[in-house]
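DM from R.C. (forwarded with permission)

"hey, sorry to bug you on a friday — could you get me a structure for this? deadline for the figure draft is monday and I only need the backbone to look sensible"
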Amino acid sequence: MPTLRWQPILTLILSICGLGVATYLTITHYDTHVALVCADNGAINCEKVTTSPQSVVFGIPVAVLGLAFFLPMITMCLPAPWRSADRRIHLARLILSITGVGMIIYLIIAELFIIKAICLWCTGVHVITFILFVIIVTAAPVVLTPGYGLGTARADHLAPDGS
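My reply, with the result:
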């Protein structure tokens, strides 16, 4: 069983970092006076990626979808929701992380095979989203167990040394 003490801290830090990058990408999407600090030629070409037709999904810029992913993820990765006995919170976190990974799979395929360029900022979001997914999925069997978060039930999921 994984220990859960570090998971809320790391997922919160990752979510805040992801929100920061998504905010930057959203600003550069809407404000042409803000420079997109990234290479703009060859295989690494953030501008080509962020201005491609694939940078908008259902009429919504992908950067804005990033904000819509990381804002609720931050709230669900605070320590209190991680300790909650309400399984719906843990299930919502799991579903959101699965949705995020599905989106980044689409975006990576689009970058590699359709746009034929890679955005380093986008890659940062992809890595953050994937790490969040791995942490949340590995914690799911523990946090979705009935009785998790109800006082003594949590102690059963700690390492023998109490960590």
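R.C.: lifesaver. The CA atoms of residues 25 and 63 lie 6 Å apart.
me: no worries. The helical segments are 6-30, 46-50, 62-76, 79-83, 87-115, 120-143, 152-155.
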